[in-house]
Amino acid sequence: MDSVKVVISNDQKAVKIPTGIRLLIRRCCHAVLELEGFEGSAEVSVRFVDNQQIRELNRDYRNIDRETDVLSFPLGENGQYDVNMDTGAKLLGDIVISMEKAVEQAELYNHPLQREIGFLTVHSMLHLLGYDHENGGIEEVRMREKEETVLTQIGWKRDNSYYMGDE
């Protein structure tokens, strides 16, 4: 892997973004690509929103009228990606995180908000790379194992607190 450009935007006011979150997100994106043996340069966008905004996106793009924690909008399929003609980087897609939902889930699972945001970022990066857990089974298990491997690599030990329900 050459380089990873992560563009992060905060489009919500409900939750103050803790210090270090942007660095954590960049580390998570880099760690996933490294684990997957990604070749070349990559670009990904991460956007923080509130519950209302993510509910609207979930309704508009997935026909599910409720808030969720994270949405992934991959720009590639089967390892083929659009390329930024100026940089040559592969455009992986967009990650949208509900900061309100991240706070709720961090409290529910009794772990720091940083771990929750790290988990959501890793989870969504795997979706951008083509992983899917919607049908359960071995694909879901494989995805969960990769999530925990990356979180452990960046310093968050396995704690069995990840969410196994609907997205």
Order of helices and strands: EHEHEEEHHH
**Arithmetic mean of pLDDT:** 91
In total, the number of strands is 5
Largest sheet: 5 strands, mixed
Terminal residue distance: 30 Å
What's the shape? Answer: globular
C-alpha Rg (nearest Å): 15 Å
Measured by DSSP, the beta-strand proportion falls in: 15-25%
Number of helices: 5
Q: Which spans of ≥5 residues are poorly predicted at pLDDT below 50?
A: 160-167
Helix content: 40-55%
Multimeric status of the protein: single chain
Structural class: alpha/beta
Tell me what the structure shows:
There is one protein chain. By secondary structure, this protein is of the alpha/beta class. The protein has 5 helices and 5 strands, in the order E-H-E-H-E-E-E-H-H-H. Strands 1, 2, 3, 4 and 5 form a 5-stranded mixed β-sheet that branches. Mean pLDDT is 91; it is low at 160-167.
Descriptive tags:
disordered C terminus, 167 residues, alpha/beta, 42% helix, 5-stranded mixed β-sheet, globular
Gist of the model:
With 167 residues, the chain is of the alpha/beta class. Helix content is 42%, strand content 19%. Strands 1, 2, 3, 4 and 5 form a five-stranded mixed sheet that branches.
Topology overview:
Elements: E1 4-10, H1 21-35, E2 42-49, H2 51-62, E3 70-74, E4 82-83, E5 90-98, H3 99-108, H4 113-128, H5 137-153
Parallel strand pairs: 1-2, 2-5
Antiparallel strand pairs: 3-5, 4-5
Helix pairs in contact: 1-4, 1-5, 3-4, 4-5
